[in-house]
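Weekly modeling sync, notes
Attendees: S.R. (lead), two postdocs, one rotation student

Agenda item 3: backlog of single-chain predictions. S.R. asked that every request posted to the team notebook include the full sequence so nobody has to chase files. The rotation student volunteered to paste the first one in as an example of the format we agreed on. Action items at the bottom.

Example entry:
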Amino acid sequence: MYWYLLLLFLCAFLGGLSVFLFKGGNHKQLKLVLSFSGAYLFGITVLHLIPDAYHGNDHLVGVFILVGFIFQIVLEQFSEGIEHGHLHIHDHDKPIFPLGIMVSLCLHGFLEGMPLAGGYQQQLVFGIGLHHIPAAFALGTILLANHQTKARTIFFIALFASMAPAGYFFSDAISSGGIGNLQQYFNRIMGVVVGIFLHISTTILFEAGPDHKFNRRKLIAVLLGVGISLIGFVSEL
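Predicted structure, as returned to the notebook:
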């Protein structure tokens, strides 16, 4: 499991650090990664996470899926859609720390890591890791655009990258400690994460290109994302 957590951290951390390697605002390769990750995220949500969330006949899971979906909409009022790689850069003469973006993005990552303690590992780890790459890149870009120093930018990228592993450790500590048994609520926690994933993945897909249209390269990226999620599903049957 610790290997998975390290992978989660590195996906976000290295994705954020890559902001120092790219210049200019036209990141075509990143947009392809975004399209691929959105399609893969949608695929694993439909094929793996929704069936897992409903395992156990908890009839309130659907309510928590809706809660997660709406909660993500609320978060994006503060994060400006950075979770799905969108860049909303505002020019400032003085250093301004984007507190709302940072807090909402960290909360988003923390919630996504919580179900990992319930055994939802491989597919969920890959889904989280993939969509955290463009999110961390966007975060790094916004921090630099707001005149944060290189050291502060790296620190806050690392802080975001640590949120999903922290969510795992938090839920694992509660479920195995004396505070209470969180295990019985994992399906509902998963429902919230499923709602978040549904919002993020569909937003990525609907906004994959100008006028909500797909060019050939993005269509291939989307088909690859869905195809790989389907291969993983079939291999487990």
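Discussion: group reviewed the output briefly. The mean pLDDT is 81.
Action items: rotation student to repeat for the remaining queue; S.R. to check formatting next week.
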